[in-house]
Amino acid sequence: MLWGTSGTTMVFITNIAPMNPLVVAFWRLAIASPFLLLYATTKNFLSTNSSHSSPSNSPLTSSTSPYLPLPPSSSTYLGLGICMASYQACYFWAVPLAGVVVTALVSICSSPIFIALFAAKFLGEKLTQKIYFALGLGLIGTSLLVINPQAIIAQDLSFFGGVLFALGAGLAYAAYAVGSKAVIKKLPPFNVLAYSFSIAALLLSPALLFTSSSIINQTINNSLINTQNWQLQLPFLLYLGIVSTGFAYLIYIQGLKSIKATVAGIAGLLEPLTATCLGIIVFKETLGISGVIGGGLLMGSIALLSFPDKVSKA
Questions:
Q1: What pTM was computed for the model?
Q2: Structural domain boundaries in the chain
């Protein structure tokens, strides 16, 4: 649900002053990274101190240093960082080519499918009939919720390029989710977040170069207006980075420790539902009968997953 507030926040940011979507993606990760690093360091510090008086087998107390331990395998964190950076880049590249609606539909609906396939292949998660049914309800509900029947799809190559980027976003997010699920079995989960997001922010930092010339020209021409715009945009950027990204992923990975990656992927479909509700409340958008049905199906899929699986008795 916190992820679903990102779109509304970005609207507020761009309404104040235009900002390149890739630059917004960089800032949300660049702001989230120090927050996650500070949280992981504090968590390790408290866990280390408490372990002096009461030993624990928690993975967070495995290091004798109160600070972030050095990664045992830099390739693990680099791979996750590449997945997160690729997700952000593909998503925001897709938006101007395919539009917000199509991008959201393709990326958000494709990611649970990719997650289910990856989890079955690499994590050994069994795809039960309940998961299949919940996945179907969630995908149909999201489609009805996001699709605008009156939208006219452009018939040019740029549109199909945008669809491919959106598929790439869904694929990259699924790889990050399944990779994180596999990694947190052996490594402290909060360290995984902190390192991977920091690497992703560094990988997206060249986005600033793409707009540096225009920023310099605007600053020279009207530095006062730019300063005022930044002051107005800063609270929204801080919210985007700390709350809807940093804190959202903290509670996401906490839940990922105890549920299947496939279930987490389906629960992530609450993002478009939240975005739609905010659009109705904040921007006075309307929701047709298909949207109402879609929202109901989406909530039904989440409710179905909340029931525990039946355990057969020997």
A1: 0.79
A2: 3-51+71-305
